[in-house]
Design brief:
This protein has 459 residues and is mostly helical. Helices cover 84% and strands 0% of the residues.
Length: 459
């Protein structure tokens, strides 16, 4: 402490000055200037020593004072009166410094939500130690999550929501929008390509030829028809292979034309599909059938395992990314992010989660109404907490101070106010010098000027 060092040096200097001025007075007797200087130094020294004693006596017994019982009983004030001091400090903190009224005023004046937003943004931007610690805690909690339980809850909630939705209302609109969508056109063409591929298989040709031959045999139900068909086959008038090839050729042409968006048959097929789903709006029996099918399907299917896998993949990607972030330089972050998110089915989900978090955070920062409501909620929560726990303030202060031994308590007070206390010692020496000079001047005025004139005054 700076003031303690200066105050200690001032005492040593004053003692040396006192010795020097005393020796000078011995040689230069009856010198007014030296007399005044000696008086001032003595007064300053007395004030300095008195304040040193007073400050030291607060914490311990000053040097050799223990041999003076009357004086010693008034030293080590803090240690001897620690119970009353601790109680007084606790009462002052609870009832004055941190009173309910003061705390409520201070809390009302603080914009908590803006400070909290700035704090979060700054920690995220700088990747602070607090941010890393929170991410580590978050990752640890994520890894301990029961993903199957979450999948079960998600499946249950999803089924409940679907059960409460009349899908017949949305089915027609969904199909109409879907038919107009480019994705439907792609799917329609894929179905057509699949049919073309299927009918051109060797197995399909074999099935058609067998069907044609069986049909001819069935028609040859009499000896006459059998002879006629035999004669036609012999002259190649009936060739099932040619018929099948011709049929397949025509079928391929029709199917290939279906891929043309302006094809009349394609337009008719799509129109029929729309008519079927339009019927859903007016046919109550069909609505009931759809609802029944929906309920039965929901009861039969289970997507827990699929949901569990998706949740695990999301958690794995998030935790791997954040673990990497905590241990690797930021300039490599994007490269590794691309490597980690390689699963095409999980990428949209992770991207959606990230987008939603950023969107909600930006929305919160720009929504003054929500910020005001959240700020008010936080403050009300603090007020409630304060009301329920306020009596503990004084108790906590007492606990902290009572856990200190005498030396620790003294050191605590010295650390907090020791510099100011030793400043008192400096003030004591300065005030002593000033007061000593004033007393010296006043004394000489009285004894050298005023009293002689009074005594010599003739009535």
């Amino acid at each position: 402490m700076k003031n303690k060092r200066i105050a200690d040096i001032s005492i040593v200097v004053l003692i040396l000055l006192f010795i020097v001025i005393t020796l000078i007075k011995v040689k230069f007797r009856n010198n007014g200037y030296f007399e005044m200087l000696s008086f001032i130094i003595e007064a300053s020294l007395v004030g300095s020593i008195a304040d040193w004693f007073a400050i030291t006596a607060l914490f311990e017994e000053p040097f050799l004072v223990g041999k003076l019982p009357i004086i010693a009983s008034h030293t080590a004030i803090i240690s001897k009166n620690r119970d009353s001091i601790v109680s007084a400090v606790a009462s002052m903190v609870q009832n004055e410094l941190l009173s309910k009224k003061v705390l409520k005023v201070k809390i009302k004046d603080v914009n908590i939500i803006d400070s909290l937003i700035d704090f979060v943004d700054e920690n995220v931007k700088t990747r602070s130690e607090l941010y890393e610690a929170l991410i580590g805690y978050f990752v640890k909690k994520l890894n301990n999550i029961d993903t199957m339980e979450i999948a079960r809850v998600l499946e249950t909630n999803l089924k409940q929501r679907i059960e409460g939705v009349d899908i017949s209302i949305y089915l027609n609109k969904a199909i109409s929008l879907g038919i107009q969508n480019n994705e439907f056109k792609k799917i329609f063409n894929i179905v057509v390509d699949s049919i073309i591929e299927y009918i051109n298989r060797d197995a399909t040709k074999y099935i058609l030829e067998k069907f044609a031959n069986d049909l001819l045999k069935k028609e040859a139900n009499s000896l006459v028809m059998e002879k006629i068909i035999g004669i036609l086959k012999s002259v190649n008038a009936i060739n099932t292979s040619d018929v099948i090839m011709s049929t397949l050729e025509q079928s391929n042409k029709i199917l290939l034309n279906l891929k043309n968006e302006k094809d009349l048959l394609r337009c008719r097929i799509i129109g029929k599909i729309e008519q079927v789903f339009e019927k859903v709006q007016t046919d109550n029996e069909l609505k009931i059938s759809i609802e029944k099918w929906k309920i039965e399907t929901l009861e039969e299917i289970s997507i827990q395992n699929e949901l569990n896998k998706i949740i695990k993949d999301i958690i794995r990607i998030i935790t791997e990314k954040e673990d990497f972030l905590l241990n690797t330089s930021l300039n490599k972050y994007n490269e590794v992010e691309r490597d980690l998110i390689s699963e095409e089915d999980i990428r949209p989900i992770v991207t959606w989660i990230k987008t939603q978090i950023e969107k909600q955070w930006d929305g919160l920062k720009n929504n003054h109404v929500n910020k005001r409501n959240i700020d008010q909620f936080i403050k009300e929560s603090l007020f409630k907490l304060m009301e329920s726990k306020y009596e503990s303030v004084g108790y906590l202060v007492k606990q902290v101070l009572n856990n200190m031994d005498d030396e620790s308590l003294n050191n605590f007070i010295k650390q907090k106010s020791g510099n100011d206390l030793h400043g008192i010692r400096l003030n004591g020496s300065i005030i002593g010098a000033l007061f000593g000079g004033i007393v010296f001047i006043a004394t000489h005025l009285i004894y050298d000027l005023i009293l002689p004139n009074i005594l010599n005054f003739k009535f």
